[in-house]
Automatic annotation (TrEMBL):
This is MarR family transcriptional regulator. The keyword Transcription regulation applies. The keyword Protein biosynthesis does not apply. SUPFAM superfamilies: Winged helix' DNA-binding domain (SSF46785). GO terms for molecular function: DNA binding; DNA-binding transcription factor activity. Residues 8-147 form the HTH marR-type domain. It comes from Ramlibacter ginsenosidimutans.
Length: 169
């Protein structure tokens, strides 16, 4: 059996970088969520879209993208997938037919309701390695990081109803 190799310093530096760790944490978070919601065939992005649309029926696609920090291509891909499953409907806006508004269908409401418990289980599973204080600290540090560096993002994040602080990409 070969002796365990030591991680080269260049790889050790890579693996210690915040971007690497955040990306890896996101991969794990998505896998935990998708496993919890496998019976519903729901991804974290789809769950996010359904949740925002339920809270803001008739929201435009661009506002929806900003509400989730998605670029336009990503939100369009997610919307098309949900629409093909009959979970939401897109209709032209009454004031400007070039704008498209999004609303949940009855099936979308049903699936989102069914997803609540699995989504909560996924959240608890993801946070399980941390005690309560560490969980709060992690979330606070992530809010600080994303808040301070928001202008660096390629896709704007703007909560629905909040004023935009910068132009959307």
């Amino acid at each position: 059996m070969p002796a365990p190799s030591k991680t080269p310093p260049t790889l050790a530096r890579l693996y210690a970088r915040p971007g690497f760790l955040l990306r890896r944490a996101h991969q794990i978070s998505a896998a935990v969520f998708e496993d919890a919601c496998k019976d519903l065939s729901l991804t974290p992005a789809q769950f996010g879209v359904l949740t925002v649309v339920q809270a803001h029926p008739g929201l435009g696609q661009s506002s929806l993208a900003r509400a989730l920090g998605f670029d336009k291509v990503t939100v369009l891909r997610v919307l098309r997938g949900l629409e093909s499953r009959g979970l939401l409907a897109r209709t032209p806006a009454q004031d400007n037919r070039r704008n498209v508004c999004v609303a949940l269908t009855r099936e979308g409401e049903r699936v989102l309701q069914q997803a609540q418990k699995p989504a909560e289980r996924a959240y608890k599973r993801l946070m399980a390695p941390l005690d309560k204080q560490q969980q709060e600290q992690l979330l606070e540090l992530l809010r600080l990081l994303t808040g301070e560096l928001e202008d660096e993002a390629r896709a704007a994040f703007v909560r629905p109803g909040a004023p935009a602080t910068r132009q959307a990409a």
